[in-house]
Amino acid sequence: MAQDYLTDLLTRYWFAPPVALWRAVELRVAAQERYERPLLDLGCGDGLIGQVLFGRASSVDVGFDPWLEQLRQAARSGVYRHVDLADGHHLPYSDGTFATVFSNSVLEHIPDVRPIVREVGRVLHRPDSAEGQGGGRFIFTVPSDAFRSLLYGYSRRRKVGDVEGAEAYASSVDDWLAHHHYYTPDEWADILAAAGMNLLKARYYVPRQVEELWDRMNSRYGVKRRWSVWGFLASPRLRSLGYQSLLRRLVVRGLSRRWRSYYRMDVPPGDKGGGLLIVARREE
Ligand SMILES: C[S@@+](CC[C@H](N)C(=O)[O-])C[C@H]1O[C@@H](n2cnc3c(N)ncnc32)[C@H](O)[C@@H]1O
């Protein structure tokens, strides 16, 4: 039976339900790929996504991140055989070490991704024509070139002709999420080709209805505002009062039912979604 990422992630991110929704759809799509080992998780953060996606203890060979606190949590998660404090611009691994490099929601936060993509190309397995083996694969997720226009706050303003307001809204989301770029599949193909990789697949996920819900819920649950009633009630500082386990149960039970159809929605053929999963292979 397919894993229920929605319930899993609502349980873990009950205090920020829209985060759970986006990531659940992302993992449902990412889980459909094959991850050959040795496997590297680039920008693994706290390891939560690695743990939910790959499950078993030590199922990822290496995770790295430049953020020490997050990396400590990743180490504690037990999913990585080894973790490194490192930056994607200078990977501390020899050429051709990995069969797969995975990266979830990292590249959009890095202003110039080209040097990092070059490093990924270097550490992936070379193709071996004598053995008839293809090169290593780079599998990553990023927000897509349609992300801004699928925001509810953007399309609502565009519909009434407020182009400037729509742009300002999308820019405020870029700032809040620290997103630096939204490349199209063709642009990714060029970036990957310059690093010796060939784009094999570009799959959009998070269709319009889901992104609109996500955007509205970010406001409702105060995810992007400094202060909200929900944010206050869910604050870790109030954990000792004991009521949060009830709150969590209510969120998990209620939203895993109410958001189920959104969780299952795929992007219709020919349309774009707010997220993009790319699979590329080292060719040289
Ligand atoms: C949104 S988090 C995603 C973390 C994890 N992949 C996940 O899906 O939960 C972005 C991560 O990228 C990492 N990061 C930022 N700049 C980086 C760089 N130059 N090289 C590697 N990781 C980087 C951050 O430290 C952070 O942990």
What does this structure look like?
There is one protein chain. The chain has 284 residues and is an alpha/beta fold. The protein has twelve helices and seven strands. The chain has helices at 5-12, 17-30, 48-54, 68-77, 114-123, 152-159, 163-177, 185-193, 208-220, 229-233, 244-258, 260-264; strands at residues 39-42, 60-65, 80-85, 100-104, 137-143, 197-205, 275-282. Helix 1 (5-12) packs antiparallel against helix 2 (17-30), helix 1 (5-12) packs antiparallel against helix 11 and helix 2 runs antiparallel to helix 9 (208-220). The longest helix has 15 residues, at 163-177. It is globular, with a radius of gyration of 19 Å. The two termini are 38 Å apart. 41% of the residues are buried. The structure holds S-adenosylmethionine. The site of S-adenosylmethionine has 18 residues, from helix 3.
Summarize the structure.
The protein is α/β, with parallel strands linked by helices and 284 residues long. It is 42% helix and 16% strand.
Number of helices: 12
Characterize the largest beta sheet: strand count, sense, and whether it forms a barrel.
7 strands, mixed
Q: What is the gyration radius calculated from CA atoms? A: 19 Å
**Secondary structure: helix percent:** 40-55%
